TrEMBL record:
This is Crotonobetainyl-CoA:carnitine CoA-transferase CaiB. The keyword Transferase applies. Keywords: Transferase. GO terms for molecular function: CoA-transferase activity. It comes from Modicisalibacter ilicicola DSM 19980.
């Protein structure tokens, strides 16, 4: 099918996760994404293993965030490399970078410099703390931003419980959210350029994004003036909405309204709980959670997780297991939706990837290209977009300005 961003070309100077995640999202939507990497080493995450793709030294981490891109290895510290980037920029609509604030100015690759050669360029900068402010000069990493931005204060067992300490989320969620916000901003900027003819400079900060996605917890604080506390797997505004131990594992119950709670009580054999004024409404259940939760927990210990799942699903009470990733990718719904995909890889022969979750007109949106090897497309891209010939490419590669052109 024709993809929404066909005809859009993106120059991706970013590395690690937030920027590459933005680039991968744009590639899945149909954009041509050119990933610029350091000759010889490439994106830092290429070496963030094990695990490695079979028969290669390509890390699973790198593979997770670079589908759909073509890799061009260019030395940005070399004046000739900088000139190549400027020539590529003229042929592109969007540039993504996540260098420290001011880091690209010394190379003449900052927004103001590139705007001079490409006036309608959309230039997306991703940093830890933004382009201005007292922390702007600092480097930012997902883990520390989860801490600084409040997420870790909300995640983990309650204070005083066994194993109690603030916890990070098990994936680099702040980076991923920042990548998605960046992609969303690029789409808005492309639409604005279509209307006005003007490009612009997008400023995305991990810390801003982390605070922005605190959602109801941020408003819980701003409304009450009381910082929310860690609740383990419980919910601050809904009860019961947490994980409970069963006879053989755990069960997540997510009761969203009072009628679901009444049906839960019937399945548990405790219908009287739904008529108790302390538990009849969600607001009451939140107030008296310390009384209600132990009663539910005691009941659930009496049967296996799968038995409870069958009984609760039969009456429409939302619930689910806590799956390990082997069970996730074996789940019939995940398999039906095609969330695992396979692509041909130039070194391994095949690579397993996770599908983009967007479906458009019944079809998944996934880029056609697998994650690239380092410098795999240097010659191809520089010939097509800059007009270099084989002799010039060979000379630039000999001098270390580019890499991979002869592969």
């Amino acid at each position: 099918m024709n993809k929404p961003l066909e005809g859009v070309r993106v120059l991706d100077l970013s590395r690690v996760l937030a920027g590459p995640w933005c680039g991968q999202q744009l590639a899945d939507l149909g954009a041509e994404v050119i990933k610029v990497e350091r000759p010889g080493s490439g994106d830092d995450t290429r070496g963030w293993g094990p695990p490695w793709l079979s028969g290669t030294r390509e890390s699973a981490y790198f593979l997770s965030t670079n589908r759909g891109k073509r890799s061009v290895a260019v030395n940005l510290a070399d004046p000739e490399g900088q000139a190549l980037i400027r020539e590529l920029v003229v042929q592109c609509d969007v540039l993504i970078e996540n260098f420290k604030v001011g880091g690209l100015k010394a190379y003449g690759l900052d927004y103001e410099s590139l705007k001079a050669v490409k006036p309608d360029l959309i230039y997306c900068s991703i940093t830890g703390f933004g382009q201005d402010g007292p922390y702007a000069h600092r480097a930012g990493y997902d883990f520390m931003i989860q801490g600084m931005g409040g997420l870790m204060s909300l995640t983990g067992q309650p204070e005083g419980a066994p194993g109690s300490e603030p916890m990070k989320v098990g994936v680099a969620l702040t980076d991923i959210f920042t990548g998605m916000y960046a992609a969303n901003a690029v789409l808005a900027a492309l639409l604005q350029r279509e209307r006005t003819g003007q490009g612009g400079h997008l400023d995305l900060a991990l810390l801003d994004v982390q605070v922005g996605v605190l959602a109801n917890q941020a408003l819980n604080y701003l409304t009450s003036g009381i910082p929310p506390r860690r609740l383990g797997n419980a919910h601050p505004n809904i009860v019961p909405y947490q994980a409970f131990p069963t006879a053989d594992g755990y069960l997540i119950i997510t009761v969203g309204n009072d009628s679901q709670f009444r049906r839960l009580c019937q399945v548990l054999g405790r219908p009287h709980l739904a008529d108790d004024e302390r538990f009849a409404t969600n607001a009451a259940r939140v107030e008296y959670r310390e009384l209600l939760v132990p009663e539910i927990a005691a009941c659930l210990l009496g049967a296996r997780t799968d038995d409870w799942l069958a009984s609760l699903e039969a009456v429409g009470v939302p619930c689910g297991p806590i799956n390990t990733l082997d069970r996730v990718f074996q789940d019939p719904q995940i398999r039906h939706r095609g969330m695992q995909l396979s692509m041909t890889h130039p070194q391994s022969g095949e690579v397993a990837l996770v599908s983009n979750p967007i479906r458009m007109n019944g079809q998944p949106l996934n880029a056609d290209l697998p994650p690239p090897t380092l410098g795999q497309h240097s010659g191809e891209v520089l010939k097509a977009l800059v007009g270099l010939d084989d002799e010039t490419l060979a000379e630039l590669e000999r001098k270390g300005v580019i890499g991979g052109a002869s592969d």
